Amino acid sequence: MIEKVSPVVIAPKRAFPKKRLIYALVGVAIIVLAFVMFNKSAKNGASDPTAAADQKHKEVVPVLTAVASLKSLPLEVRNIGNVEAYSVVNVIAQVGGQLTHVYFTQGQDVKAGELLFQIDPRPYQAQLAQAEANVLRDASQIHSAQANLDKDTAAAKQAEAVLQKDSAQQNYADVEVKRYQKLVADGAVSQEQSDQMRTNSETAGATVLSDKAAVENAKAVINADKAAIAQAKASLAADTSAAENLRIQLGFTEIRSPVDGVTGALNFYQGNVVRANDVTPLVTINQIAPIYVTFSVPETNLDQIRQAQASGKLSVRAYVDGKKQSVVEGRLSFIDNAVDKTTGAIKLRATFPNINRLLWPGRFVDVVVTLPQPGEAVAIPSQAVQSDQQGQSVFIVQPDNTVTFVPVEVQRTHGDLSVISKGVKAGDVVVIDGQLKLTPGAAVRVMDSKQGSTDDSTKAAQASS
Fold it and tell me: Looking at beta carbons, which pairs linking 296-299 to residues 24 or more positions away fall under 8 Å?
């Protein structure tokens, strides 16, 4: 018997995994090759840093230039200033009552003495009328007391006259008593007659005593009349003062502007009841013509500012919003009495007429204080100066029409000019436009030249360029 053997089928190996590996190796090789080439090119570029610059050197760059020159430029100190009202007046009621009228609108210009508010005057008018009546009453009492004094003074004089008469009669009676006593002793008259003379003398003495008492009483009445007059005069003075005080208070019911200025927002309106000397003002008035601008300057400029102010050669300008067409002229009116220890600056204040109302309280302005010329210095247009992290620099055009890159030190600026203390000398030709396309050594073609001066050195520099 023959057995059937089943054939063994061997499956062929799949080629896909092998191809995938090859592709991966090829990709890795490409990446490595690219990395090597990149490093090589980077090294070549690092070894030749002037390659790009050399390419630029082949190009002629058109530029605008100006010539550095010696100029006597005033010293300018610049800072930000704050505008302040020349005076700020809080209008406060000095008497209480109801506001019956408001005679202005908010934000209106008012003149000194102009009527602003009216407080109901009727209560004060009534009190004043009563006080004036008291004054009239006191004056009448003084007249009455003076009349009594005159009458009592006359009565006192009459009493003194009676006293003098009775005193004379007493003296005569005393003489008669002595004479009759002698006559009695001589037997010329009787004792009865002598006793009668003594009685007459005693009667006269009693009359004199009575007259003296009357005189003293009259003097007392006169003193009382004088006291009444003094009291009436005191009452008159007090009532007159009270009337004058009420008259003043009645005047306070009309509230007028103390200054020329601009009114602010109303805090009380017609119909409101206001209190005397309330902490809240009825309205605030700002006097803005003239007006102040307060600013600070470094203490290093203090001596120069004081000297210039003393000589009258100092000027102050304020630029509104930094615009040259919105500039106002003023004068320095105040230098603070101490330097701020924290900032090293000193506060100044300038006064401006402010006729055109460009300055407004609370506004910030650019302030420029101009001092006398300190002497000649090298000046170039400010647009020639380039600033970066390393500092400030300019491009100077050489006689061969190439440029050099020169660091400079800017001492100060005046208008469109910069004063250079180091790096540029008079006669140097500096680039003022086209710097962005320049590198050190680049060739240039001068398109135009702004004259920095007309001296011989400037002309020579222009000719060489």
Answer: 296/79, 296/340, 296/343, 296/345, 296/346, 296/347, 296/348, 297/77, 297/79, 297/345, 297/346, 297/348, 297/369, 298/77, 298/344, 298/345, 299/339, 299/344, 299/345, 299/346
CA-CA distance, 326 to 359, in Å (whole number)? Answer: 10
All domains in the chain, ordered by first residue: 58-73+375-464 (2.40.420.20), 123-252 (1.10.287.620), 287-371 (2.40.30.170)
Q: Say how far apart CA 293 and CA 318 lie, in whole Å.
A: 8
Query: What are residue 92's phi and psi, to 5 degrees?
Result: -120, 140
- Whether the Cβ atoms of residue 412 and residue 304 lie closer than 8 Å to each other: no
Q: What is the pLDDT along the chain (465 residues), one digit of tens a residue?
A: 344 444 444 444 444 455 566 666 766 677 767 666 655 555 554 445 455 555 545 589 999 999 999 988 888 888 999 999 999 999 999 999 999 999 999 999 999 999 999 999 999 999 999 999 999 999 999 999 899 889 888 888 888 888 888 888 888 888 888 888 888 787 777 888 878 888 888 888 888 888 888 888 888 988 998 999 999 999 999 999 999 999 999 999 999 999 999 999 999 999 999 999 999 999 999 999 999 999 999 999 999 999 999 988 899 999 998 777 789 999 999 999 999 999 999 999 999 999 999 999 999 999 999 988 777 889 999 999 999 888 999 999 999 999 999 999 998 888 789 999 999 999 999 999 999 989 999 999 998 654 443 343 334 334 433
Instruction: Tell how strand 60-67 and strand 443-450 pair up.
Output: parallel
List, edge to edge, every strand of the sheet that includes 115-119: 254-256, 115-119, 97-102, 273-274
